[in-house]
Amino acid sequence: MHGLMMDTPLLTPSLIVYAADYHGDTEVVSRSVEGPIHRYSYREAYARIQRLANALTRLGVREGDRVATMAWNGYRHFELYFAISGIGAICHTINPRLFHEQITYIVNHAEDRFIFADITFVELLESLQVRLGAVEGYVIMTDAAHMPETTLPDAMCYETLLEREAEEFAWPALDENTASALCYTSGTTGRPKGALYSHRSTVLHSLSVCTVDNAIALSSRVTVLPAVPMFHVHAWGIPYAAPASGAKLVLPGARLDGESLYELLEDERVTHTAGVPTVWLGLLDYLRESGNKLNHLEDLLVGGAAAPLSLIREFEEDHGVNIVHAWGMTEMSPVGTTGRLKRKFESLSPEARREIKRKQGRAIYGVELKIVDDRGTRLPHDGKSVGQLMVRGPWIARAYYKDPDATAAAFDDEGWFATGDVVNIDPEGHVQITDRAKDLIKSGGEWISSIDLENAAAGHPDLAEAAVIAIAHPKWGERPLLVAVPRKGAQPTGAAVVDFLRDKVAKWWLPDDVVFVDELPHTATGKVSKLKLRERFAGYKLPTE
Ligand code: ADP
């Protein structure tokens, strides 16, 4: 027997319609690419979203078409999210930090018909344009006064397109399973693969992200600043979740350096923020050097890569900010686990609490987790058994877009997705990522976790950044090499770094060598590129050989 409840489809325009109706005067503040701070209300945003939907229709965009964006976190990008999906087309957010060959690959693979780009990316697109086969038109996201000279064929101006359109648009009654957006993985683990989100998955993920334990605790009392780019898994869903909750939204544009972020966090009295560790380490550097304190920030979500203990400690002790460590993936919309502490742990000592917080958190409602060994056998959640993490849930991909080979490799017969992350789960449900499967170091038949070593090294006062890779070793198979960037002005020695690690990791985990470099290679999402690092140190001879 079916229930007798309305079968109203979950569609993304409903999120912004809600904000316009019930939080109409709440602000969306953006640091514009042109320079000044731009502010308007959800009501005004919605009026422009309807103009944009009319403009897209006039351009000939039809249901199912892919329309790409190459843009920073700003109000025009926010408008595109809703207008493109709302008319039934698919918003493909391109990560401009990908290598040029990868951008060409994904634009052609997605068969994007139009690309909307910030002025910052015009030159990049000009250099790639001849290779972007199916693209019929480029729209520059600015006004007539800032329109750049460009060789892009028939480049259009965003504001000019909107000017002549009406402020009303009748959204089509789409099936909630209609595709709404497309995002490619950054290729940390190979060729980029497309995750194709639906209206339903996006709305469900948004509602989940608003809740207190599940992610970032959004509400109409909150001001949220996504410091993770909108071209990287929808800034972790915040541009959708903020209007759904009535939170004030602050979009930082192109500037994610410590000083620029600090300015916005203070001026706009931001209470909640989210981003990758690299961004937060930059903010901490700035705060240390300037002596400034964070006066309004309450909650900081950190994820995308492991958050070092030292980062958690410094934000908590020096700035009174609650750190929530989270884990997710492009294929998961992206939130999978978050680490808001259960009440029963509040009485623990600060150090004991942080030992829990440095783990990647518990599954959020809606996400099922299991760990399996090489043969696919389930392992217990005892905090000790280590295996590959598999996930299932309503906002997790069930296949890659037009990529049967990648799909066959990552999804099993029961519908579980293999994350490629190697983890343990404790009886409380806390997940601890020990590595990505291919980054583990196998020494004498036993695994060494590169993440654990990196986290320990990150606590060294003279090191700005550290990465560990496996180097072939005639006796042990593989041994760890630590590649580190010294902090400005510091001159650490390899021996001192190894000494520092002695009481933090098992003796046989200690790196066989430490190499200092000026800079580590990063991927398009700000993670250390182990792929590049392995290439650079291919054939490296360890002194222990
Ligand atoms: P890509 O796969 O291209 O690197 P994603 O953003 O989808 O881009 O990366 C997801 C991966 O990032 C996860 O599978 C995991 O390896 C890593 N990751 C995400 N959050 C964390 C975290 N809090 N700690 C450790 N690793 C993380």
Describe the overall structure.
The protein folds into 3 domains: 13-357, ANL, N-terminal domain (Rossmann fold), CATH 3.40.50; 367-436, Roll (Luciferase, domain 3); 440-536, 2-Layer Sandwich (GMP Synthetase, Chain A, domain 3). The mean pLDDT is 94. With 545 residues, the protein is an alpha/beta fold. The protein is globular. Helices cover 30% and strands 23% of the residues. The protein has a 9-stranded mixed beta sheet with strand order 2-1-11-10-12-13-14-15-16, with helices on both faces. The protein has a 7-stranded mixed beta sheet with strand order 7-6-5-3-4-8-9, sandwiched between helices. It has a 4-stranded antiparallel beta sheet with strand order 17-18-19-20. It starts with 12 loop residues before the first helix and ends in a 9-residue tail after the last helix. It binds adenosine-5'-diphosphate. The site of adenosine-5'-diphosphate has 23 residues, from β14, β19 and β20.
List keywords for this structure.
Luciferase, domain 3, 545 residues, nine-stranded mixed sheet, 17 helices, 3 domains, alpha/beta, seven-stranded mixed sheet, 30% helix, GMP Synthetase, Chain A, domain 3
Topology:
Layout: H1 13-22, E1 27-31, E2 37-41, H2 42-59, E3 66-70, H3 75-86, E4 90-93, H4 100-110, E5 114-117, H5 122-128, E6 137-140, E7 156-157, H6 158-163, E8 179-184, E9 194-198, H7 199-210, E10 223-226, H8 233-236, H9 238-245, E11 248-251, H10 258-267, E12 272-275, H11 277-290, E13 299-302, H12 309-319, E14 322-328, E15 335-338, H13 350-357, E16 362-363, E17 368-372, E18 387-392, H14 404-410, E19 417-425, E20 431-436, E21 441-443, E22 446-448, H15 450-458, E23 463-473, E24 477-486, H16 494-501, E25 513-516, H17 530-536
Parallel strand pairs: 1-11, 3-4, 3-5, 4-8, 5-6, 6-7, 10-11, 10-12, 12-13, 13-14, 24-25
Antiparallel strand pairs: 1-2, 8-9, 14-15, 15-16, 17-18, 18-19, 19-20, 21-22, 23-24
Helix pairs in contact: 1-2, 1-9, 2-3, 7-9, 10-11
The site of adenosine-5'-diphosphate has 23 residues, from strand 14, strand 19 and strand 20.
